[in-house]
Amino acid sequence: MHNPLALIALIAYSLAGLRILAYRRDGARHRHHVSWFAWLLLVALGGSAIELVIHAKAVGLFEAIRAALFSVLVFSARGNVARLLRPTAEQ
Q: Cα–Cα distance between 19 and 4 in angstroms, integer?
């Protein structure tokens, strides 16, 4: 892979997917709609990573930034997809 932006995006997508896979509930309620959304998110992340391996030359700056920001969001939620879906509290 000769494109450094593709490598950044590939690493970001892979880390976000692994973080979601490594999430532990620790007593949190199981909600089916959140589980399905987490599964769809993993499929999208995995598909994006596979697509980057196959077509690495098609990656631009904004896709690499989007992948890195998405990875930061997943890590800030500690892999908890329900926290990503929860609305923010207005003050």
A: 22
Q: What tokens were used for 75?
A: 């890590």
What tokens were used for 49?
């990573």
- SS3 labels along 22-71: CCCCCCCCCCHHHHHHHHHHHHHHHHHHHHHHHCHHHCCHHHHHHHHHHH
The series of mean pLDDT values per 10 residues for the chain, 91 residues long, is: 86 93 80 86 92 84 93 88 72 44
Domain residue ranges of the chain, discontinuous segments joined by +: 4-84
The one-letter amino acid at 24: R
Q: Are 22 and 79 within 8 A, CB to CB?
A: yes
For residues 76 and 41, the answer to whether their CB atoms sit within 8 Å is no
